[in-house]
Amino acid sequence: MKIFILKKEKKILEIEGFAVFFSTEKGQLELLNNHCSLISMISSGIIKIYSNFLLENEFFLEKEIKLEKEIKILCNQNTTILKIKINYGFLKLKNNKIIFLV
Q: Which of 23, 49, 87, 89 could form a disulfide with 42 if both were Cys (CB 3.0 to 4.6 A apart)?
């Protein structure tokens, strides 16, 4: 699924992923490919995105990379996990396209 994380001023991230975890007022949610359409508020916390986008480059394997103060990337041999810290926001999911407004 295609995942976009946007702020009012700029696009923070655009990536292909296979699972997304985030917090709402009611608890933790997980979204996978082909999930039904959804609109939700997002609580303060961490958005975790699971992807395969850096696995070809051995330099990144089993390391932690910090892109910006709010984004960390953890890589191992099977999966790349992006952790994005947010205060609050909104989410729209439709047709395997997720847009986070944070």
A: 89
Minimal CA–CA distance to 63: which of 49, 77, 48, 50?
77
The tokens describing 15, both together, are 């990536």
Q: Each residue of 64-92: pLDDT tens digit?
A: 455 556 778 887 777 888 899 888 999 99
Q: Is the pTM higher than 0.70?
A: yes
Which token pair is 24?
């709402």
Instruction: Give dist(CA 56, CA 92) in Å, integer.
Output: 30
pLDDT tens-place string over residues 15-71: 899 999 999 999 999 999 999 999 999 999 999 999 987 644 444 444 445 555 677
**How far, in Å, CA of 21 to CA of 51, rounded?**
12
Interatomic CA distance for residues 26 and 66, integer angstroms:
30
CA nearest to 32, candidates 42, 40, 20, 41: 20
Tokens of 88: 């609050």
